[in-house]
Write a structure and sequence with these properties.
Layout lengths: L3 H28 L5 H23 L1
Helix pairs in contact: 1-2
């Protein structure tokens, strides 16, 4: 059986990941505003890298 500290940590990680998903979706929407495909690509790439770093921090 899991202890309460472990359950709280999982709950906090889940909330963190949910917030990160919302952040990523907002950034990706702003990337769509670029008219040039290379600009969009670079924006998506940067957003994914930053989001991945923050998501990893959620899990630690």
């Amino acid at each position: 059986m899991e202890n309460s500290a472990n359950i709280k940590a999982k709950s906090k990680a889940k909330a963190c990941c949910s917030l990160e998903k919302k952040r990523l979706m907002n950034v990706l929407k702003s990337c769509d505003a670029y008219s040039e495909s290379i600009e969009r690509h670079l924006c998506y790439k940067k957003a994914a890298k930053e989001s991945g770093r923050r998501s990893k921090a959620c899990m630690l």
